């Protein structure tokens, strides 16, 4: 009898611990996708999800992708009042940021991110970083501590067949452009930087030549 009572108490204690852990679950962010198989030209749709018992006033996310297989188009947030903050985009890394003037309770999709499939390939998406933001007592935005980042990776299969092109525009929500810089613009920027480096070192060389010539 004593052994039976001990077992019952152990089970009750374990259940109470699990229930308490679920009730005290931390704020979290994770990546998800309904479909992982696409064709060339189709719109790849993934969601950045979040859950927080603390009302938030913004969030950020970075998703790494293969620019040879995918091209980011835009993101939209279904949360009312969340407005997209446009940031410079780099090839291979989507950088999204949203903010709200009023606290918002979240439990589900924070943003839907759209890509266009460029060619047949086995590729994936990786949630490089993500954060939830709140407003502190001084009125400044600050990141919410102890946010658990859950599922980070999504594997995608892009078939070589050409699919039906879909409209990348979302039905509603604040739309944030995620278009990467054009390759020509990247090449021009690199050319300009290279020319500036040549001019700087050329100026240094000319100055050194004149200095040593005068000294001689």
List key phrases describing it.
216 residues; alpha+beta; Immunoglobulin-like; 2 domains; seven-stranded mixed sheet; six-stranded mixed sheet; 2 helices; 25% helix
Blueprint of the fold:
Elements lengths: L1 H22 L4 E5 L4 E4 L2 E9 L4 E9 L5 E8 L5 E2 L8 E12 L2 E11 L3 E15 L5 E3 L4 E2 L3 E10 L11 E4 L5 H33 L1
Parallel strand pairs: 1-11, 2-12
Antiparallel strand pairs: 1-3, 3-8, 4-7, 4-9, 5-8, 5-13, 6-7, 9-10, 9-12
Explain what you see.
The structure is a single chain. The protein is of the alpha+beta class. It has helices at 2-23, 183-215; strands at 28-32, 37-40, 43-51, 56-64, 70-77, 83-84, 93-104, 107-117, 121-135, 141-143, 148-149, 153-162, 174-177. The strands form 2 sheets. Strands 2, 4, 6, 7, 9, 10 and 12 form a 7-stranded mixed beta sheet that branches. A 6-stranded mixed beta sheet has the order 11-1-3-8-5-13, with no helix packed on it. The termini are far apart. The model is unreliable at 7-24 and 184-189 (pLDDT under 50).
Classification by helices and strands: alpha+beta
Identify the CATH class of the largest domain. Mainly Beta
Oligomer: single chain
Number of helices: 2
Question: What percentage of amino acids are in beta strands?
Answer: 35-45%
Helix content: 25-40%
Rg over C-alpha atoms, rounded to the nearest angstrom: 25 Å
Question: In the residues, how many domains can be counted?
Answer: 2
Order of helices and strands: HEEEEEEEEEEEEEH
Mean pLDDT reading:
81
**Beginning-to-end CA distance, first to last residue:** 106 Å
CATH topology of the largest domain: the name is Immunoglobulin-like
Uncertain residue segments: 7-24, 184-189
Number of strands: 13
